[in-house]
Amino acid sequence: MSRTTLLLVLILALLAGGVGVTMLRPAISEAQVREIAQAVVAEAPKPASLDKSAVETIVADFLDGQPKQNTPADMDVAELDAGRLNPMIESYLMDNPSILQRVSDKLADEVAARRKEETRTQLAALKTEIYDEPGHIVLGNPNGDVTLVEMFDYNCGYCRQALPDIATLLDEDPNLRIILKEFPILSQGSVEAARVAVQVSAAPVDYWTFHQALFTSPGKVDKAAALKAASDLGLNPITLEMGMNTPDVSGVIDTSYKIADKLKITGTPTYIIGDEIIPGAVGIDQLRSRIENMRACGSTDCPATPG
After folding, report:
1. CA distance linking residue 269 with residue 267, whole number of Å
2. What's the pLDDT at 216?
3. Which element (helix H / strand E) includes 62?
4. Which residues contact 249 (CB under 8 A, 6 or more apart)?
5. Which of 49-58, 153-162, 173-182, 279-288 has the weakest average pLDDT?
6. Which of 187, 112, 111 is CA-nearest to residue 155?
7. If you write DSSP's letter for every residue of 11-22 in order, what string do you get?
8. What is d(CA 9, CA 247) in angstroms, rounded to the nearest whole number?
9. Residue 239 vs residues 6, 70, 85, 89, 260: alpha-carbon distances, Å
10. Residue 39 confidence (pLDDT)
11. How many CA atoms lie within 13 A of 289 on its CB side?
């Protein structure tokens, strides 16, 4: 159990039910609170779980072991019950709110670190579905040293805004591989357009032209708009419509849904790069920064360089 978590347990146990411990009266300083917490963490055994009784025992044992000369002669030592202890703790914390803020900030850091590790584990488990799915669209350098994945919906306004970012990255970075994954979640029209798009990506035509045409077309994107854009590239719209519900087409889209479900992705665009999931149209500068970091240290968040 981390220091932050143990400190929270101690505070909450005291506030929730009161712990009969021997304390100096009338108050203790912030430095003493910190010293007690640190000493408890350093010296106490690590039980499997800390209930109220365990906390009471740890704190009482620690305080009982303190040298008597540290207690000023003119201060009384009293056994404080919950009725007296809780107001003292509340008053101290109200007078020193920065303590709880620091604890809260530390806890937030620990939660973020845990979530990052969970994300890394999930990404590793889904590596084949994310990077090796035969039906997804690969743009740029298929052997690029960095891969950027975008999950998108043709009726997503933010995806439309992000289109120039993808175009610029393709133009300026010859070593970048971009994977586009159909993730239709906004409407039935999005699903129908995606089913047409999967077939276009497998045909001997320029998928990027089709992709741009749908994102720059006015109004909602649906089956009719997708068939029109495909027809402009020379594909047969009747054949495409007949193939919309084939197992191969459904499998590509279902894989995107599986990835989203496992990674708790609920919106578009969502980018995946390295060990990070990036929700939203974050802009080209943010994407460039992460691509550069991947090349520099193999992660989207490189450690700061000393000096």
Report:
1. 6
2. 95
3. helix 52-64
4. 135, 195, 198, 199, 243
5. 49-58
6. 187
7. HHHHHHH----E
8. 53
9. 64, 88, 78, 74, 30
10. 56
11. 9
pLDDT the model gives residue 23: 39
Of 13-27, 95-109, 271-285, the range with the lowest mean pLDDT is 13-27
Return the structure tokens found at 30: 């912030």
Take residue 217 and report the two structure tokens written for it. 């077309």
Enter the tokens of residue 28.
């203790």
CA distance 211 to 204: 14
In our burial notation (b when 16+ CB lie closer than 10 A, e otherwise), range 217-255 reads: eeeebbbebbbebbeeeebebeebbebbeeeebeebbeb
Cβ–Cβ under 8 Å, residues 196 and 244: yes
Give the percent of the chain with pLDDT over 90: 58
| Whether the Cβ atoms of residue 30 and residue 98 lie closer than 8 Å to each other | no
279-295 pLDDT, tens per residue? 999 999 999 999 999 99
Angle at 256 between CA 291 and CA 124, to 5 degrees: 55
Span 3-17, pLDDT tens digits: 444 445 455 444 444
Evaluate if residue 78 carries a pLDDT over 70. Answer: no
Q: Residues 45-76, buried b or exposed e (16+ Cβ, 10 A)? A: eeeeebeeebbbebbeebbeeeeeeeeeeeee
Domains of the chain: 3-117 (no CATH), 127-297 (3.40.30.10)
Written as one string, the DSSP assignment of 78-130 is EE--HHHHHHHHHHHHHH-HHHHHHHHHHHHHHHHHHHHHHHHHHHHHTHHHH
| pLDDT mean over 157-170 | 97
